[in-house]
Amino acid sequence: MKWFIFAVIAIILWAIKNAIFKKIDEDEQRSLSTPGRANFIREHYQGVIDYILSNSEYQIIFERTDAIKIGTSDKKEYLAIHQSSGGLLIAFIKYSSVQKEWHFSRGETEKHIIYELQSYI
User: 80 lies in which domain range?
Assistant: First the structure.
């Protein structure tokens, strides 16, 4: 009887785990299936993206409508670029810890943004 109860509990836990991971996989697949859609960022800050990608170790890791992650292939170091109230929010993340964060308003030029990023790229 103990083994039967144990088996039932194990099956229930396995089903719950699969349901949770299936939901995560669906969300990730949906995000990854929309490359090239970071419209606002690409339209207004393409020069910044090109500058970041000029580092040969960096590549686009993740891209969706309002955000782009650019960093190393092992994802230990990357820049998260987000649309923020018509401006730009950039965070430099290394080993899952935010090292530096920049908030740029709509009026900031690409040259100024690149100047601010130079010490981190």
Answer: 39-120
